[in-house]
């Protein structure tokens, strides 16, 4: 008669879970990013490729950190993908009291709305999903960010 020894299986951690426990962008603070109007780093891009769930898991800590800024201004999300619902924001631990979700009107492009939100200066960071940004659009976002003393972050999903 053979005896079987039961060895409990260890739960496998998702690939990036160890990284997600740490602040992804520890130096990313709106006050530092918008310290000078001439700062060329007022525009940033983050490109994510892969399964939607994995991309959202990588994006969550970035948005969470930005939503927890000590700023009195908003974190504004322009035209986020439909998968970034209120429930997802809550489950990802974002401070929803400091977030504005904006969709462009029928006569307005997401780029125009992002530039308007940046220019107004009511947001410390405006996160947009514009896809690939050409040099002209980048200059528009930079000018608007400079005017509003804000940070522009474009998320490119592949």
Automatic annotation (TrEMBL):
Alphabetical UniProt keywords: Transferase
GO MF: transferase activity
Superkingdom classification of source: Bacteria
Keyword Hydrolase in annotation: no
InterPro entries assigned to the protein according to its UniProt record, in alphabetical order: Cell_div_suppressor_SulA, P-loop_NTPase
GO BP terms, alphabetized: negative regulation of cell division; SOS response
Keyword check for Transmembrane helix: no
A Pfam family that the UniProt record links to this protein: SulA
NCBIfam families registered for this protein in UniProt: SOS_SulA_aeru (NF041583)
Record protein name field: CDP-glycerol--UDP-pyrophosphoryl-N-acetylglucosaminyl-N-acetylmannosamine glycerophosphotransferase
Gene: sulA
